[in-house]
Write a structure and sequence with these properties.
One of its GO terms (cellular component) is plasma membrane. It is found in: Membrane. Keywords: Leucine-rich repeat, Membrane, Repeat, Signal, Transmembrane, Transmembrane helix. Its main location: membrane. By secondary structure, the protein is of the alpha/beta class. The chain has a domain at 21-178: Ribonuclease Inhibitor (Leucine-rich repeat, LRR (right-handed beta-alpha superhelix), Alpha-Beta Horseshoe). The chain is 34% helix and 14% strand. The protein has helices at residues 2-9, 113-117, 134-142, 168-173, 178-221, 227-233; strands at 21-25, 28-32, 49-53, 61-62, 75-77, 85-86, 100-102, 122-124, 130-131, 155-157. The strands form three sheets. It has a six-stranded mixed beta sheet with strand order 1-2-3-5-7-8, with no helix packed on it. Strands 4-6 form a two-stranded parallel ribbon. A two-stranded parallel sheet has the order 9-10. Helix 3 runs antiparallel to helix 5. It is elongated and about 100 Å long. The protein starts with a helix and ends with a helix.
Length: 234
């Protein structure tokens, strides 16, 4: 019983990941995991962490609920990794309290807008090989981007070749609307589908009419028996 009571008295989240350093900064706990050759986000981060530095590692993905248990988290630095994929619910549970999120200098080409638009944090997204599309445009319009890094969000690929290599902000300032490109593509797809169904209906009606006409012609051309044969049959 004494051992069980001792376990209950141990504060949860007080341990530090073996590859990191845990310190106090102005009364708030900071977990420093910079340049530790990490390939994923550590699972045993203390629950009371406020500042989390995971920069300069080899992390490739931010999975769903990666920080959900870290309710006190205010700043996350994930810059200088190899992040390619961010799940829609990657920052679920920390969206309300997070003040700063650094995703710069990774390998991010696209990101679900749902992952960032719920955040109130100041975002750094510079120096990634972005594919300039509607979702990124919506993030730029609605998210709180760091003004010092917004001009470094450059189109690595884009629907139109003239956008490639240009800052996304410059492309949008020139009057481009990446969401209208997607809308036009959707409209074309709907039109093609409707035209296909309409063509099928026309072909069916034509074939049906032709079949009925051929049946009618065969019925008229069928030879009638002579009157004598008809009388004998009666």
């Amino acid at each position: 019983q004494a051992f069980f009571c001792l376990l209950l008295c141990i504060p949860w989240g007080s341990s530090c990941p073996p590859s990191c350093q845990c310190t106090e900064r102005a009364g708030a706990k900071a977990v420093l995991c910079s340049s530790r050759h990490l390939e994923e986000i550590p699972k045993d981060i203390p629950r009371d962490v406020v500042f989390l530095k995971l920069d300069a590692n080899s992390i490739t993905r931010i999975p769903s609920n990666a920080f959900r248990h870290l309710s006190h988290l205010e700043e996350i630095d994930l810059s200088g990794n190899a992040i390619e994929k961010i799940d829609r619910a990657a920052f679920k549970g920390v969206a309300a309290g997070l003040r700063s999120l650094d995703l710069s200098s990774n390998r991010i080409r696209s990101i679900p807008k749902e992952a960032l638009l719920a955040l109130k944090a100041k975002l750094r997204l510079a120096n990634n090989p972005w594919h300039c599309e509607c979702a990124l445009q919506e993030v730029l319009w609605e998210a709180r981007l760091d003004p010092d890094s917004v001009r470094d969000i450059t189109c690595h690929t884009a629907p139109r070749q003239e956008y490639v290599g240009k800052p996304l902000l410059q492309v949008l300032d020139a009057g481009a609307n990446l969401c209208s490109v997607r809308q036009r593509s959707t409209d074309v797809a709907v039109f093609v589908t409707m035209f296909g169904w309409f063509a099928m209906v026309i072909v069916y009606v034509v074939c049906y009419a032709r079949h009925n006409r051929e049946e009618s012609c065969r019925h008229r051309e069928r030879p009638r028996p002579p009157p004598g044969a008809q009388a004998r049959a009666e």
